[in-house]
Automatic annotation (TrEMBL):
InterPro entries: MeTrfase_RsmB-F_NOP2_cat, MeTrfase_RsmB-F_NOP2_dom, RCMT, RsmB-like_ferredoxin, SAM-dependent_MTases_sf. Keywords: Methyltransferase, RNA-binding, S-adenosyl-L-methionine, Transferase. Belongs to the class I-like SAM-binding methyltransferase superfamily. RsmB/NOP family. One of its GO terms (biological process) is RNA methylation. Gene3D superfamilies: Vaccinia Virus protein VP39. PANTHER family: NOP2 YEAST -RELATED NOL1/NOP2/FMU SUN DOMAIN-CONTAINING, RIBOSOMAL RNA SMALL SUBUNIT METHYLTRANSFERASE B-RELATED. S-adenosyl-L-methionine binds at D263, D291, D308. It comes from the Bacteria. Residues 149-421 form the SAM-dependent MTase RsmB/NOP-type domain. It comes from Zavarzinia compransoris. This is rRNA cytosine-C5-methylase. The lineage of its organism: Bacteria, Pseudomonadati, Pseudomonadota, Alphaproteobacteria, Rhodospirillales. One of its GO terms (molecular function) is RNA methyltransferase activity. Pfam families: Methyltr_RsmB-F, RsmF-B_ferredox.
Length: 422
């Protein structure tokens, strides 16, 4: 494909993604499946522009001077320049409407591209690519580290796998994956984690198809490990969703004891079924939609309860760059109130002497330590565990442990362990 045609393809893709309804990576995959003529280099160049436009979506209004989010076409043109695909003059020349090239630039588009080259000092939120309104929340968490963390958030998330200890050990799986030609190493923090270099299609590979590994960020693995679930215990996963942490808990329990996966949304629970089958634990894991009768029936029945709470997803911006735009301080405050209510409900299931683990993939203190402090203020029978002693090499604070892509190389995560008085 000619460079101008690649640019046109990137713009077309951005328009499809902007139409919404589907995750960006799915739209990109489908687009290329239907365009077999696009070679490897074409795909890399087109996807490079598209991902750049998505990653910089928050700051494009300032950079282009449009004030509002630019249309997909201008976003693509600007991303081509910002990513170094071509300079503004070349983009202007390519856009002649001939063959597969984009239509000629409008006056406004030409002015917007010219602004990209102006010598202006971007404000912190543009440099860090976050909504201006979230600046105070991010500064509260990261302080002087904020630019470093946001640079790490702009990178690509690594591919991490969790070894299913029910079926295999980490060393054996590392050998197996290396034998299949993958470049892999053990994760630094999770004893069941494997980090894969590059992007690999795992679906067809035997260790994945046969349930010896699952895709799971190292931070998520630590959340499950913080539950200290052991064979023979009773454990509840209160916000189980599609079961990422449930699977990890089942493996720690070696399929012995009782594991109850709960969620307010029965449809999400349904989605965990194929994963349970692949991991060989579909008979072991009980599933139930939350309701008040169940909460009353199961009160005080569990050694450990995990609350992997719904949150702003601000720790996952590497994977979901567009989630930046959905978070606002008001939304964060609403979520914090919901998280407090969920913790209160879940706490009722914990046995005296049992453990309550609260986790989010949010980096905002408002959804993390503040929620824990509020809960501990309401429930004198729970106390925060010693977070410094939870994982070797990870220094926790009094109310929990926060992970981020710059410090630990994981997604942004928070976890707190609270023990109920015996
Ligand atoms: C972060 S997701 C869970 C992800 C899941 N634990 C995993 O590892 O794949 C949060 C889940 O909380 C559920 N949820 C939302 N409100 C809830 C509530 N009030 N009580 C229980 N679960 C709730 C959502 O349906 C969603 O599945």
């Amino acid at each position: 494909m000619q460079p101008a045609a690649r640019l046109a393809a990137a713009i077309e893709l951005l328009a499809e993604i902007g139409a919404g309804g589907e995750a960006a990576d799915r739209v990109v995959d489908r687009y290329f499946r239907h365009r077999r003529y696009a070679g490897k280099q074409d795909r890399a160049a087109i996807a490079g522009i598209v991902w750049h436009a998505i990653r910089r979506a928050t700051s494009l209004p300032w950079l282009t001077g449009t004030g509002a989010h630019p249309a997909p076409r201008l976003a693509g043109l600007a991303a081509a320049v910002l990513s170094g695909f071509a300079d503004a003059a070349t983009v202007d020349r390519w856009c002649d409407g001939q063959g597969h090239a984009p239509a000629p630039l409008s006056y406004e588009e030409r002015a917007a591209l010219a602004r990209l080259g102006e010598d202006r000092v971007p404000p912190d939120w543009v440099q860090g690519d976050y909504p201006e309104s979230l600046g105070p929340l991010l500064l509260r968490r990261f302080g002087a580290r904020l630019p470093t963390v946001m640079a790490a958030m702009a990178g690509r998330a690594p591919l991490d796998l969790r070894v299913n200890r029910l079926k295999a050990g980490r060393e054996a799986v590392l050998d197996e994956l290396r034998g299949l030609g993958l470049q892999v190493e053990g994760c630094a923090l999770s004893p069941v984690g494997i980090r894969v270099a590059g992007r690999e299609r795992l679906g067809p590979l035997a260790p994945f198809a046969e349930g010896r590994v699952e895709v799971q960020d190292e931070g998520s693995q630590l959340v499950a490990l913080a539950c200290a679930a052991a064979p023979g215990q009773a454990v509840a996963d209160f916000c189980a969703g599609a079961g990422g942490k449930t699977l990890a808990l089942a493996a720690e329990m070696q399929g012995r004891g009782r594991l109850l996966a709960l969620d307010i949304d029965a449809f999400r629970l349904k989605r965990m079924e194929p994963r349970l089958t692949r991991a060989g634990i579909d008979q072991f894991v009980e599933r139930a939609a939350l309701d008040p009768d169940l909460l009353a029936r199961e009160a005080g029945a569990f050694d450990a309860v995990l609350v992997d709470a719904p949150c702003s997803l601000s720790g996952t911006w590497r994977r979901n760059p567009l989630a930046r735009q959905q978070a606002t301080p008001e939304r964060v405050a609403e979520l914090a109130a919901l998280q407090g209510r969920i913790l209160d409900q879940a706490a009722g299931l914990v046995k005296p002497g049992g453990r309550l683990v609260y986790a989010t993939c949010s980096v905002f203190v408002e959804e993390d330590e503040d929620v824990v402090a509020g809960f501990l203020g309401r429930r004198g029978d729970f106390a925060a565990a010693d977070h410094a002693a939870l994982f070797p090499g990870l220094a926790g604070g009094p109310l929990g442990l926060a992970l981020d892509p710059a410090a630990q190389g994981t997604d942004g995560f928070f976890l707190a362990v609270m023990m109920r008085a015996a």
